[in-house]
């Protein structure tokens, strides 16, 4: 393991950790020596991730849109390990694919509450121990749709654009306290959500790959390895920016 991705002894908190991407990032962090707090609303799904008695894992049920629950989640982490080094804001919901003019207000508010406000609440809670320690990393998992638009994805795209802006704001506000903040914007990735939508990997690739200069879709490990790099010392001078892992989608 190179020093650039050595997280030995560090504590990484990942929201939306029951999903494929969140768990993929968790696996990379575990391999790099970190202790990992898996945070998700679905505790049953969390219990299915990883070995039940792994001392390096902590599973925390949390609705990231609830201020009290986000504070309690961070306190659970501190009670277990007495430190918090990295926060990965990955929790997200995809609302129905309606045009902006047809979008229900409930779906708009749901997308912003979970995808954006939830990241702010988790960041606010996690920044307190980071500031005391004089170091830390906040990584927001945004999307290519935070930079370019797609039909029927207005609420999702707005929330992800907000995540990119939030990372920049955290970076500027807290750089003098040793804290870095970034956003990571994946393109279409072969997760179980994509496979359910299109039926299988071949169908998803046939439907989507032509939009990508790379000629294919991404996979979870590619995104997770990029996330791991951004957490580590190899990225120590990278802050306040968005890193796109989108096969060139947003370049055209």
TrEMBL record:
Family note: Belongs to the short-chain dehydrogenases/reductases (SDR) family.
E.C. designation(s): 1.1.1.163
Protein name: Short chain dehydrogenase/reductase
Top-level lineage group: Bacteria
Organism (species): Bordetella ansorpii
InterPro entries linked to this entry: NAD(P)-bd_dom_sf, Sc_DH/Rdtase_CS, SDR_fam
Top-level EC class as recorded in UniProt: oxidoreductase
CDD domains (alphabetical): SDR_c (cd05233)
Lineage: Bacteria, Pseudomonadati, Pseudomonadota, Betaproteobacteria, Burkholderiales
Keyword list, A-Z: Oxidoreductase
GO molecular function (one): cyclopentanol dehydrogenase activity
Pfam families referenced in this protein's UniProt entry, alphabetically: adh_short_C2 (PF13561)
């Amino acid at each position: 393991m190179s020093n650039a991705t050595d997280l030995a002894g560090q504590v990484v908190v990942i929201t939306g950790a029951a999903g494929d991407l969140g768990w993929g990032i968790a696996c990379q962090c575990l391999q790099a020596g970190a202790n990992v707090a898996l945070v998700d609303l679905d505790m049953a799904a969390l219990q299915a991730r990883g070995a039940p008695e792994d001392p390096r894992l902590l599973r925390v049920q949390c609705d990231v849109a609830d201020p009290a629950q986000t504070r309690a989640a961070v306190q659970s982490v501190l009670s277990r390990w007495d430190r918090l080094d990295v926060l990965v804001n990955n929790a997200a919901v995809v609302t129905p694919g309606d045009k902006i003019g047809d979008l229900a207000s409930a779906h708009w508010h749901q997308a912003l509450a979970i995808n954006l406000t939830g990241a702010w609440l988790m960041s606010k809670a996690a920044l307190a121990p980071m500031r005391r320690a004089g170091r830390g990393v906040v990584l927001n998992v945004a999307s290519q749709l935070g930079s370019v638009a797609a039909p029927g994805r207005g609420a999702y795209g707005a929330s992800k654009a907000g995540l990119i802006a939030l990372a920049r704001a955290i970076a500027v506000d807290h750089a003098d306290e040793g804290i870095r903040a970034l956003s990571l914007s994946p393109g279409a990735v072969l997760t179980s959500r994509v496979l359910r939508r299109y039926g299988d990997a071949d169908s998803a690739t046939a439907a989507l790959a032509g939009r990508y200069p790379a000629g294919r879709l991404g996979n979870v490990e590619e995104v997770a390895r990029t996330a791991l790099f951004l957490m580590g010392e190899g990225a120590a001078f990278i802050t306040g920016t968005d890193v796109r892992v989108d096969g060139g989608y947003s370049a055209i």
